[in-house]
Design brief:
This is Large-conductance mechanosensitive channel. It is a multi-pass membrane protein. Belongs to the MscL family. Channel that opens in response to stretch forces in the membrane lipid bilayer. May participate in the regulation of osmotic pressure changes within the cell. By secondary structure, this protein is mainly α. It has a domain of about 100 residues. About 70% of the residues lie in helices and about 5% in strands. A two-stranded antiparallel sheet has the order 1-2. It is elongated, with a radius of gyration of 31 Å. The two termini are about 55 Å apart.
Amino acid sequence: MSFIKEFKEFALKGNVMDLAVGVIIGGAFGKIVTSLVDNLLMPIVSIFLNGVNFKDKFTVLSFNNTTDFKTLEEAKAAGVNVLAWGAFLQSVLDFVIIAFCIFLLVKFMNRLTRKKEEAPAPAELTTQEKLLIEIRDAIKSK
């Protein structure tokens, strides 16, 4: 089997295509959640924390540089080593929200799958139905 034919067979399998679609949708979903956190949730959280913007929270790690920087961009532009803990906190919040949304989606899909699998149990046959089945089977056997 040629290399190209093997690759084509591998790439066209259902699982690989499903994975590719999942990765693309996941990337778009990540952008939506990041926008949700940045533009909707964090401003509300900032109100409760007296206007704190987490993206600008950082700690300067350079011991010989005593200049105070107001924003993270200023510190990075100056070439100072910084610990950008605010951006990390923002990413953790993004992750938690994405994980929660995926959990809800999987839970919903499992519930749909479970409903499909749970077919109603056949009702108990009445005496008359049992007798009719026996008669039918007896006629078939003759």
